[in-house]
Amino acid sequence: xxxxxxxxxxxxxxxxxxxxxxxxxxxxxxxxxxxxxxxxxxxxxxxxxxxxxxxxxxxxxxxxxxxxxxxxxxxxxxxxxxxxxxxxxxxxxxxxxxxxxxxxxxxxxxxxxxxxxxxxxxxxxxxxxxx
Length: 131
Hints:
Strand content: 25-35%
Shape: globular
Strand order of the largest sheet: 1-2-3-4
C-alpha cells in the first residue's frame, strides 16, 4: 500500500512538473513570436506594405494609423533620416500586461528604435520610432 501511495505521489509531481514545463515552453514560444511579429511589422513598413503592416493592429491603432497614415510616417522617417538600411538587434520586455519589443532600425543618417507594443491577444497596441 505504501509503495502504491508513493508511486501516485511521484506521478502527481511529475505531472505537475510537466504542466509547468509545458506552460513555460508555451510562454517562451509566445514571447519569440512577439519578437518575430515586431520584426515582420518593421520589414512590411519598410517595404511599403502598409495594409499588411496594420493587419495585427488593435481597432484603435487601425483608426489612428491607417495605411495612408503609415505611408506618411514612413516618408517622414526616410526624409529626415535617409534611406532605410535594415534592422539590427532586438530586445523584449514585459510591462503592465503588454509585451514591448524594441527593434533597432538602421537609416543612412541615424539608427532609430522601433518600439512595438503588443497586448496579450498579440495585437499591436503601440508603434513608436525613437532615437
